Amino acid sequence: MAYSLSMAVVTPALPQIQDGLHTTPAGAAWALTAMTLSAAVATPVAGRLGDLYGPRRVLLAVLGVATAGMVVAALAGTVPVMLAGRVLSGIGGGVFPLAYTIIRDVVPPARTASAVGLMSSMLGLGGAVSWCLAGPIIDYLGWRWLLWLPVAGLVPGVALAWWIVPRSAPKAAAKVDWWGAALFGAWLVAALTALTEGMDWGWTSPGVLGLLALSAAAAGAWLWTENRVAEPLIDLRLMRVRGVWTANAASLLSGYALMAGGLLFPLLVQLPDGTGFGFGGTATQAALLQLPASIGMTAAGMTAGLLDRRIGSRMVLFGGALMTGLGYAFVAFQHAAMWQLYVGGLARGIGLGFAYAAVANLVVAAVPAGETGVATGINTLIRTVGASLGTQITAVVIVVVPGEGGYATGFAVSAAVMAAVLPLALLVPRRRPPGRGTGPGAVPDPVTAVR
């Protein structure tokens, strides 16, 4: 939760960071972008290192580097120092796949789904805490104290990880595909930077087109490398397993739905009431609107494991996508009163809590134990890409479609996106009897079981 808090905590403080570091809005926004890009690259790499060398030692290293980065960011007096600290902090993104690997190693199979759901719910809880605490901390203590907040959670987290997480032996003669990691990072950073800056630079600007061309070239070189090395960073055959690619596609769409709402709801609340459809609310009122949804997301993630044992994660995903889509469809037509936003937002939060927990459980169940870290890392990465798409596409929609129609269209698009998750959930392989495969719902051999 401390890491998810560090990712979310900068967003409400961006105006204060801009003033405090004497930079532009774009310079302040890079405090968030830098960490996102770093986390995108570090997440699958850390997951792979955990699979090879044992999750405990990699987790301790990742948490140590992330904590140091947060301290640097909190003390930063200039934008370059702030960005350096945020890049180091982004390495903490590896905690998610490493945690899933540890869960699979130490938790009894009957409780694995509940533990994975609880872990997934921490994303919603971190966002809820950051929005609730941001206003009072900024108003009474200053924005730097907001950056110290995750450090207060990570320091005891490192100590507890060192004390509680069991050691595990590394794989014999394990090797890391460093060329694959470098090429993977190159195409991913180029693509995400183009996606992030497209609105400011222009989608047909030389900078964006150049980054996209660089990304395509690096991606081609990466695919060529991964298909020829003995121990690739990411086994591409594994990504074609039906239980994996369906969960990854659902993660992409769910990430979109999360961040689309994260943009639409606060903006609609804070629009002047003179527009005829805005509420003229404060930042605190916008934060309070997000609170029930975040709590609902956390609670849903915690209970998803219980539902997994009864109906299976494929149906949990189906139900979560349906609830999220209905919540968005409701506010697309009914958004004239605050209670309507609360109802739609709560349905969105609960539905996404179920969906996030379900896709994590589906990936864990579909891959061999030795591939858990990298597979869940890729799933987390794809969710991040979806979130970037949700932010950018929704911003374009509310600019292109004027007035109230832009917000209604944004909500409707999000509902349609979650409707696309429904057939993906039905394509997920049904759960098999215990004792077959590598876990509940797993296929016996992910390489030969590609569908």
Automatic annotation (TrEMBL):
The protein's matches in Pfam families, at most eight in alphabetical order, are given as:
MFS_1
Q: Where are the transmembrane segments?
A: 25-46, 58-77, 83-103, 115-138, 144-164, 176-195, 201-224, 245-267, 287-307, 316-337, 349-369, 381-401, 407-428
As for membrane topology, the entry says:
Multi-pass membrane protein
Q: What is its main location?
A: membrane
GO molecular function term, any single one: transmembrane transporter activity
Q: Which InterPro entries match?
A: MFS, MFS_dom, MFS_trans_sf
| Location of the Major facilitator superfamily (MFS) profile domain | 1-432
Would you name any one GO CC term? plasma membrane
Q: Where in the cell is it found?
A: Cell membrane
Key words, A-Z: Cell membrane, Membrane, Transmembrane, Transmembrane helix, Transport
Alphabetized PANTHER family for the sequence = BLR6921 PROTEIN (PTHR42718:SF46), MAJOR FACILITATOR SUPERFAMILY MULTIDRUG TRANSPORTER MFSC (PTHR42718)
Q: What is this protein called?
A: MFS transporter
